[in-house]
Specification:
Blueprint (H helix, E strand, L loop, with lengths): L4 E3 L2 E4 L4 E6 L3 H5 L2 E6 L6 E6 L5 E3 L7 E6 L4 E6 L8 E7 L10 E6 L1
Parallel strand pairs: 2-10
Antiparallel strand pairs: 1-3, 3-8, 4-5, 4-9, 5-6, 7-8, 9-10
């Protein structure tokens, strides 16, 4: 099975921005709703944003108005623009189909300092 590959994480101060990218090859990733998930230490993985193959988006209340998900079907990539970051956004971020139908990648660490 092909797993997604996430990148773009890092350390940023509260109020800053980061853009995450996900390379997800394979027809299943092109045809399905894609999502960005995150898992903070000691917490369960949670879904923060989704985008359908038609471009419709949805967001968790905790990130609504601050995060923006997009995808490029031709390049098989999904991105997450994160603005006005807060310390509580600190987590490992993953992309996958929503709901998850493939194995998880390594994720990318996002750390927001106060």
């Amino acid at each position: 099975q092909v797993q997604p590959v996430e990148s773009g994480g890092g350390l940023v101060q509260a109020g800053g921005s980061l853009k995450l990218s996900c390379a997800a090859s394979g027809s299943i990733f092109r045809s399905r709703t894609m999502g960005w998930f995150r898992q903070a230490p000691g917490k369960q993985r949670e879904l923060v944003a989704t985008i359908t193959s038609g471009g419709s988006t949805d967001y968790a209340d905790s990130v609504k108005g601050r995060f923006s998900i997009s995808r490029d079907l031709a390049k098989n990539t999904v991105s997450l623009q994160m603005n006005s970051l807060k310390p509580e956004d600190t987590a490992v971020y993953y992309c996958n189909t929503a709901p998850p139908l493939r194995g998880w990648g390594q994720g990318t660490q996002v750390t927001v300092s106060s």
